[in-house]
Amino acid sequence: MCGIVGYVGGRKAAGIIYGGLKQLEYRGYDSAGIATLEDGKISVVKRRGKVSVLQPYIGGLGGTAGIGHTRWATHGGPSDENAHPHSAGKFSIVHNGIIENYSELKEKYFPDTAFLSETDSEIIARLLDKFYDGDFLYALKKVADLLKGSYAAAVICADFQGLALIKRNNPAIIGYGEGENFAASDAPALSFCKQITILEDGDVAVLTADGVSIFNERLQGVIRERIVNPATPLSLELGDCPHYMLKEIREVPASVERTRTAYLSVENKVGLTLAGAERIIITGCGTAYNSGIIAKRFIETFAHMPVETEIAGEFRYKNPIITPNTVVVAISQSGETADTVEAAKLAKRLGAVVVAVTNAPYSQLTRCADAVVPVEAGSEICVAATKSYTGQLTALYLMAKTLAGQGAAEAVKSLSAVAPLCERVIAEGADIDTLADMCARASGVYFLGRDIDHGVALEGSLKLKEISYVPSEGYPAGELKHGTLALIDIRTVSVFLITSPRLAEKSANAVEQVLSRKGKAAVITNVAAVRERFAGRVPVISIPECDEYLSPFLTAAAVQLLAYKTALLLDRDPDKPRNLAKSVTVE
Ligand code: F6R
Fold first, then answer.
1. Which of 22, 296, 345, 582 is catalytic?
2. Three-state secondary structure of 162-198
3. SS3 annotation, 506-548
4. d(CA 308, CA 324)
5. Is 265 helix (H, G, I), strand (E, B) or coil?
6. Which protein residues touch ligand 1 with a CB less than 6 Å away?
7. What is the distance between the alpha carbons of residues 89 and 86, in angstroms, rounded to a whole number?
């Protein structure tokens, strides 16, 4: 969701904040803004568009304290007016989250005031202005107490040479420098700070050039731990790739390698945490949920343990049944997805053991987990998850092996073939061009597979619709004839994933059913008989032969490339698809 940056020190704030916002642009990119404070006067620039729209104004913004924001719209469309910062009287604020009771507050305190934006966030600035009597801290606390929902907000006040942060259910981080201090919603924006503090819910933090004071909900001064900043600056270099998505697909093999190596150092803890598990519930959202569907197959097959998968946004509202010895595995690239974090917290409250599978150490998710299985995908800038998905599959495969009682060394070794095979799929990606062209012209694209291929079919479909905007569905191949077949016509493309020799014949029958209804079809396979049967009849994307349970790593790379190439043919920006943001920290 939205990205927040704040600075106070001896240097010009605007340039520093702009640099931080560039690092956070993946959190939202429909508008951006900066407010700085100079000689007790606040200046604001905010514009619809990506962070770079601010560049021409940076030189003109004086002052050594300020705040900035890059937005993903929740309340009020993308526009200059709705862009943050929002200001009232002596205050300017930037906000990440959703103020659920903003209409109520507006009606109660400002019945006759015309607000300048349609956002839920403007209420924060208005309330600060209303309750400010010269005591900044008091006003912050009073306003924080009135807000319902989720927020991390950075605030500047014309009377105070510094900035403040308030937070509940959204991440807020402080970074320490020499004679300067920083604030952000996310560690990458502060990667140059050696030490950071992650604020707790209810905290109010006040930053000046000389120091940071943190207060808890009762406004008592508290000391929060300073930790070594785990973030490295996001590498914004594209190398020879035109897009981050392609760069990150090419990094899939490295993601697998790093993740499997990292598992050796956590296996012991994970093994102890999982000991006694009798039932597993896997939860997550979007791509992370899709990796959970594959993990279900891994665990059921390797460990013969019952597994349920639950979309996190559903799980958190359904009064879930947590029996003794239930382990909840929460998967999240960012570790900050609100639905997943809340699902994990609920599971914990209900007595489950919680295991987090994430790319983000020190995220909200890791803080509520009993054990963490690291995904070492490295930072992912493209909104569409690629290498993090394959990293999650790696971590989950190894966790399934631990549940099955297999030693880590042997399990890690069993994945040694994956990276080189993925490299081959990615290098031979040109074969996908014909299929991408078909998808770009299609009225709808269906991804179909059985068993483990069905899991990747879901992910292929999500990737395609997310970045190309072509309507798409992922379906179990056997279900086609129970309804979806009615949609098949000459304008549709059905992409069949067929990697299991056991089920190849069955899936091949479904291809025939589509062709005999004049639908277009294609096959992604490593089964020789399937290749031969369909060669010359439909495009066949050949992937290397491998163990059935390693095939998702390879088919995933193929469907990621397919989505990428289709998006390019349709002239979409694959890195920043419309309406989306990378880290969804609101409900
Ligand atoms: C799709 C995608 C999203 C995320 C989902 C969960 O490409 O990236 O579907 O997978 O928003 O995000 P995390 O994994 O950060 O919890």
1. 582
2. CEEEEEEECCCEEEECCCCEEEECCHHHHCCCCEEEE
3. HHHHHHHHHHCCCCEEEEEECCHHHHHHHCCCCCEEECCCCCH
4. 15
5. helix
6. 285-288, 332-334, 337, 340, 384-385, 462, 466, 583-584
7. 10
Q: How far apart are CA 64 and CA 156, in angstroms?
A: 12
List, in sequence order, every residue forming a beta bridge with 155; answer none if it has no partner: 93, 164
Q: Please tell me whether residue 306 adopts helix, strand or coil conformation.
A: coil
What residues contact 62, with CB distance under 8 A and at least 6 apart? 12, 14, 36, 38, 43
25 contacts: CB under 8 Å, gap ≥ 6 = 3, 50, 51, 70
CA distance linking residue 73 with residue 48, whole number of Å: 11
Contact 575/381 with Cβ under 8 angstroms? yes
What single letter denotes the amino acid at residue 15?
A: G
Residue among 2, 157, 422, 439 flagged as catalytic: 2
Determine the Cα–Cα distance for residues 357 and 287; give it in Å rounded to an integer: 13
In order, the DSSP letters of 79-116 are STTTSSPEEETTEEEEEEEEETTHHHHHHHH-TTPPPS
| pLDDT tens by residue, 238-257 | 888 999 999 999 999 999 99
Cite the DSSP H helix spans in 251-353.
252-274, 286-303, 312-315, 338-349
What was the pLDDT predicted at 147?
A: 96
Looking at the whole model, is its pTM more than 0.90?
no
Q: Give me the residues paired with residue 307 across strands.
A: 280
91-144 per-position pLDDT tens digit: 999 999 989 999 999 999 999 999 999 999 999 999 999 999 999 999 999 999
Backbone angles phi, psi at 323, to 5 degrees: -85, 165
